[in-house]
């Protein structure tokens, strides 16, 4: 049953063992759960109970396998049934995610992953974004390109960028690693270039600080083009405070 599977996932041995796994080992451990609707629900319920480092490992596993997860994303009969609101998730966000479950199953992971993203340091964020924007093996495409065509994928991207802008706007010292700021700038330009070159899908939610991020680095004409592109894709999409 789902309750039994959740107890197995939440067992101390598995939770503590997450940190000892390599990313590839962790991906193999969680991929079977992430490929089915019930498994996604179980992982979304597990995430709030994990330590930050363990939850970060799960986020990286999702990012690593994002192309296959998006390709396999589909609605099964059990997807339409109501599910518990993730711990710490607002009712409005939970309701929006449940609505999107009618067409896709990946959005159930979004609220819990956003909580993980909200706790990332700048260095951790850069590491995840580098994986997100890297070229796929034996392919000219990137996760970034594929994410722009998927509701969950682009929502995850926006959440990551929003966290970067939040950290840069904060008065709290970030203690970045060497090269982090250069990597961040490169990533912002890469994302802006991709967003301006493709037809964007509507995200689950639009962070309110997304466009102010691009204003930091891009010329006014490019920002205006991006703004128009994002606005076209988010007609009727609620903006959330960042």
Write a structural description.
The longest helix has 19 residues, at 151-169. The protein has helices at 2-9, 12-17, 23-34, 37-46, 52-64, 66-72, 91-100, 110-117, 122-133, 143-147, 151-169, 180-197, 210-215, 220-233, and strands spanning 206-207, 239-240. The chain is mainly alpha-helical. Helix 1 packs across helix 4 (37-46), helix 3 (23-34) crosses helix 4 and helix 5 (52-64) runs parallel beside helix 9 (122-133). It has a two-stranded parallel sheet.
Question: Which key features would you list for this structure?
Answer:
242 residues; mainly alpha; two-stranded parallel sheet; globular
Question: Quick gist of this model?
Answer:
With 242 residues, the chain is an all-alpha fold. The protein contains 14 helices and 2 strands.
Element layout with pairings:
Layout: H1 2-9, H2 12-17, H3 23-34, H4 37-46, H5 52-64, H6 66-72, H7 91-100, H8 110-117, H9 122-133, H10 143-147, H11 151-169, H12 180-197, E1 206-207, H13 210-215, H14 220-233, E2 239-240
Helix pairs in contact: 1-4, 3-4, 3-5, 5-9, 8-11, 9-11, 9-12
Number of helices: 14
| pLDDT < 50 runs, ≥5 residues | 75-103
Tell me the β content: under 5%
Order of helices and strands: HHHHHHHHHHHHEHHE
- The overall average pLDDT, rounded, is 78
Quaternary structure type: single chain
Order of adjacent strands in the largest pleated sheet: 1-2
| CA-based gyration radius | 17 Å
């Amino acid at each position: 049953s789902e309750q039994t599977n959740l107890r197995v996932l939440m067992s101390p041995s598995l939770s503590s063992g997450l940190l000892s796994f390599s990313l590839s080992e962790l991906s193999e451990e969680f991929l079977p759960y992430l490929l089915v609707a019930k498994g996604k629900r179980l992982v979304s319920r597990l995430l709030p109970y994990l330590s930050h480092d363990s939850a970060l490992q799960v986020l990286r596993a999702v990012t690593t396998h994002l192309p296959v997860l998006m390709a396999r994303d589909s609605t099964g009969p059990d997807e339409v049934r109501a599910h518990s609101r993730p711990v710490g998730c607002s009712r409005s966000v939970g309701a929006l995610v449940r609505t999107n479950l009618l067409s896709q199953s990946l959005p159930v992971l979004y609220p819990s992953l956003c909580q993980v993203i909200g706790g990332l340091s700048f260095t951790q964020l850069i590491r995840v974004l580098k994986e997100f924007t890297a070229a796929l093996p034996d392919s000219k495409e990137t996760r970034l390109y594929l994410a722009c065509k998927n509701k969950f994928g682009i929502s995850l991207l926006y959440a990551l960028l929003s966290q970067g802008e939040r950290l840069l706007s904060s008065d709290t010292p970030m203690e970045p690693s060497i090269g982090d700021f250069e990597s961040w700038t490169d990533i912002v330009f890469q994302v802006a270039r991709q967003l301006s070159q493709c037809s964007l899908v509507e995200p689950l939610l639009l962070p309110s600080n997304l466009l102010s991020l691009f204003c930091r680095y891009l010329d006014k004409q490019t920002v205006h083009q991006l703004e128009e592109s994002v606005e076209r894709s988010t007609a009727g999409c609620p903006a959330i405070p960042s």
